[in-house]
Each structure stands twice: as structure tokens, then as C-alpha cells.
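re: that chain from earlier
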Amino acid sequence: NMVGGHPYLLELTFRTLQICNDMTLEKILETAPTKDGIYHSPHLQEYLAILKQHSDLAKVFLSIVKGEYLGNMESHANKKLINLGLVKYENGKLLVRCELYRLYFENYLGDVA
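^ sequence. v structure.
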């Protein structure tokens, strides 16, 4: 549930477990949405940089993260967020692609948007 079936994130998880003998799945999940987690660099860091450069996207994304988005589903910002892979359109709603993104950006995007 944390990575929502995201192929790159799953591969990174399995590779880390295979290479790092002292790493456990529990430890990966515990640190996942933090800057100490295995997903932070470069994956989440790149997304954070994009969102910091585009405050309009950051505001829309943060409202989706918080479940407060009531805007136009066909907006340019929504399409960009879908194309980036940060959100998905499901059952008539825009949802954060995975729990990792929701937790991480809820923590680190608040000062940007």
C-alpha cells in the first residue's frame, strides 16, 4: 500500500532488501516518508524540486493530498500532475498515487504551497 504498485519504488525496495543485510521491510516503511528514507533521493527529491518551482502545481497537489480539492478535473495543473505520476484519476476523483506520496508531501510541501 505504501508504494501503490509503483514499479520503480517496488524495484528500489526489493533491491535495498537484497543488498542491505541490516535493512528490514519494517525499517523501510517506517522511514519511507522522511528525508532519511530510501525513496527520498533522488525520486521524491526531484518531485519536490518540480513542485517548488511551480507553486501553482504545488497548491493543487497539496489540496489533493489533503483531500480538499474541488477544482476542475480537466485543468492544466491536474493534467500535469497526472502526467508526472503524482496523482491518478479514479472513480471521478483525483487521488494521490500512493500513500508514500501523501505522507511525504504532506510533511515537506506545506511550506511551499
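The chain has a mean pLDDT of 92.
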